[in-house]
Amino acid sequence: MPSFAAKEPTRSWWKESNVYQIYPSSFKDTNGDGIGDIQGIISELDHIKGLGADIIWICPCYRSPQVDMGYDISDYRDIDPRYGTLADIDELIEKLHERGMKLLMDLVVNHTSDQHMWFQSALTSKDSPYRDYYVWKKPKTGPNGERLPPNNWMSEFSGSVWEYDAASDEYYLHLFAVEQPDLNWENPKVVEEVHSIVRYWLDKGVDGFRLDAINYISKDTTYPDVAATDSDQLYYDGKQFYSNGPRMHEFLQGIGKILKSYNAFSVGEMGAFKDPKDVLDVVAESRVELNMVFQFEIVDIDCGTSGRYFPQNWNLPQLKQIVTKWQTSMYENDGWNALFLENHDQGRSVSRFGSDLPEFRSISAKMLATFLGLQSGTVFVYQGQELGMANIPTTWDISQFRDLWVFNVYNELVKAQDLTTLKVFKTELHKKGRDNSRTPVQWNSSDYAGFSAVQPWISVIDDYTTVNAAAQYEDPKSVYNYWSSVFKLRKSHKDLFVYGAFSLIDPTNEEIFAYERTYREQRALVVLSFSAKSVSWSLPKHYDIGEKSDVLLANYDDCSPLVSKIEIRPFEAIVYKLD
Ligand code: ISL
Ligand code: CA
Questions:
Q1: Where is 419: in which H helix or E strand?
Q2: Nearest CA-CA partner of 25 in 54, 64, 74
Q3: Do 163 and 213 sit in the same domain of this protein?
Q4: Which of 26, 58, 156 to mutate to test the pocket of ligand 1 (most atoms within 8 A of CB)?
Q5: Separation of CA 117 and ligand 2 centre (Å)
Q6: Which atom of ligand 1 is found nearest the CA of 272?
Q7: N or C: which end of the chain has fewer CB within 10 A?
Q8: In terms of domains, do 378 and 360 share one?
Q9: Are residues 238 and 205 in the same domain?
Q10: What is the tens place of the pLDDT at every residue in 383-403?
């Protein structure tokens, strides 16, 4: 029998909301500079509202030199001129609130830009009041007297996490790009600054935050080396020493208290978390830290052990195991899931988990919408996902990519003349490179997909002539309209789909992913095919075949009733109501 949770989750507005993520550079350009802007967001609020999303999360639009697309902030209290002004944000907040919608800003406080006034001042002298806002360490000396970085940690974007400053003969820490120095949270002044930034935006009327790389804010302050395993390798992944560090909960509770006093929404990015217990320590209601966390187990499923630019085979039972682990552990322990298959750091889900072949693209995008959208948690849809936008075509040349991470790795491999790895890199880049999701949103079939009047900062994908929002509004069977049905179902069956329990059916089946949602006497069965072939599926025995079952949603026009053996078509999705 499916498991009925003894206690029901407490109810909250943020559990009942659907979130739409916006990458501002690629959403919509209104002033003809080829870069999306805040007025562009304002002009498309009906697109988002029409979809059924209640909240938008905007990736960083603060003042920034844009080395890492705004994740390098030089002024936390201002908007970058490429996106608009503070007045535009005020207008956006007002127009959202008029529609009963909310705004999340991206809080990037693990690091700043090297152009931030704090860091610029820190560079001038060891006596600067801002020197201790960052992490500085003396060089190490190698066996031949050479100067070495303080430890062997590897930066997320390749190379060492340490950058040498000749003027002071010290290194500073940067877990990400050289231009993104890490803030020193051990300094109480930094904590105060962050609190004041949080209050500044909440006082402006912002409704909450997505917290960037927030599991990295507390480091092992002894900065130990990672045990070396390969004499050729200089740097190693040091997450064991900087993810979920000793003071992380204390720091999160400091922010959590403020967020709670504003009844604000919070989702923390904690990519390295794999143990539900670690996530529960952040999201369980009693902790007053964050509402929910993005963990990366699903989006890492096809990433190799050496990182995303390496391949990894996976199968459906593995995916089921991951989904079930998070679904049940959060539900049963007062936690909550942040559900996503895409964001600005990931490949497009239809290309990775469905099929972007013309014959399967729309049907598999709808299957994935059903898969994700009816799980327990808060659903996040990333711009373009609601249209079934696909990855960058393999015909693109490397010069058309824009992500600094791509060029760091590419240049390194070219320099090392490592042609074998370079070939692997190119293949995987087309599956998982961050630029795949950063191409302009395809609004209509006019030039540049209606995104801009001029050539955008990153090329539009050619299929915009057929895959675009305008065409999808007209088509009742479009991916956009299907997503909207999924969101409607969450709202019309809130008890079941928001607050119901999850249980997996048929764990070992390699093609069919089936799960039940149950709430008291209400039950629904979600049947999904991840296969491009037809499959006949024998229902697990406990189903009382013949019982009356309505179909709540399906991605084909007609569908089979719930009989003991169902013929399931490629990427079919059917939601049966069982009670
Ligand atoms: O990508 C990861 C693992 O492969 C993560 O662990 C990574 O730390 C995480 O994705 C961090 O990303 C965030 O911070 C970065 C920025 O470039 C990304 O766009 C942002 O989402 C630095 O601010
Ligand atoms: Ca613009």
A1: helix 419-432
A2: 64
A3: no
A4: 156
A5: 26
A6: 6
A7: N
A8: yes
A9: yes
A10: 999 999 999 999 999 999 999
